[in-house]
Amino acid sequence: MIRWSLTKSTPVAETDRSWIFRVEQNGRNFAALKILKSVVAEEEGRGARLLQWYSGDGAATVFDIHGDTIFMEWLDGGTLGDAARAGRDDEATIAIATLVANLHRPRPDQPEGLQDLRQRFEALFKTDVRAWPHTARDLYARSAGIALKLFDKPMPETPLHGDLHHDNILSSDRGWLAIDPKGLIGDPHYELANAFRNPFGATKLVADPKRINAMADVFSARLGLNRKRLLGFAAAHSGLSVCWDLAAGNPITADLAILPNLLSAYDQA
């Protein structure tokens, strides 16, 4: 509080990753303090440095970082997930494409210590197929095989948000802004992967083959990315998410509904 001349703090949330406070400067401007928990400080620190590098262009502005505390812009607008769940999914898809174009704009002096994308996929490659339900093991084999094929044909690398989905994008007077990046570096096609399986809680929407193909069309056309590679990373990421959820004891029903249609779209691309 003293370091940044803050006059008031209000606890907002505690997650398994951080404590978040809304703070005031001289009783006028709101800002946020995000205090990282030690178990995720390395990953969240990468994300905070990436936010600094974005300099507020398509992402929340980070004013300063000190130790495990991030002093940043306060955003309290609705999420893009709210818009998609309310029937504005086509608009949301275009908004994501526009946002990624801003995030991937060339900038000098990229941040150090970003996680290599292939390392991010280690859980997919190391998971025992027997951890998957018997009826879904072919889905595991296919998603892992596609991931290996994608990494065998590397693309020019760029810094990646790494967890860009509808509910990590907030509205503001500056437009839609990304929050909570993972801080990766790798193939730009991966940046769109999580959008295919979101927004959260809308499984019927995200599993719709027409929606999957429409999203691939928009992302490919607006960002100049390869359509089949976009769908490949979407399928591979869905398989990776199942592996993470199995390890954490979380439900996997949503991804098991989505993944077959992502694989089908990939095959037809």
Describe this structure as you would to a colleague.
The chain has helices at 41-54, 80-85, 89-103, 117-120, 122-126, 137-152, 203-206, 209-223, 227-248, 253-268, and strands spanning 8-14, 18-25, 29-36, 62-66, 69-73, 115-116, 158-160, 169-170, 177-178, 184-186. The model has no long low-confidence stretch (mean pLDDT 94). The protein has two domains: 8-73, Phosphorylase Kinase, domain 1 (2-Layer Sandwich); 80-268, Alpha-Beta Complex (Aminoglycoside 3'-phosphotransferase, Chain: A, domain 2). Helix 3 (89-103) runs parallel beside helix 8, helix 6 (137-152) crosses helix 9 and helix 8 crosses helix 9. The strands form three sheets. A five-stranded antiparallel beta sheet has the order 1-2-3-5-4, covered by helices on one side. It has a three-stranded mixed beta sheet with strand order 6-10-7. Helix content is 43%, strand content 17%. The protein starts with 7 loop residues before the first strand and ends with a helix.
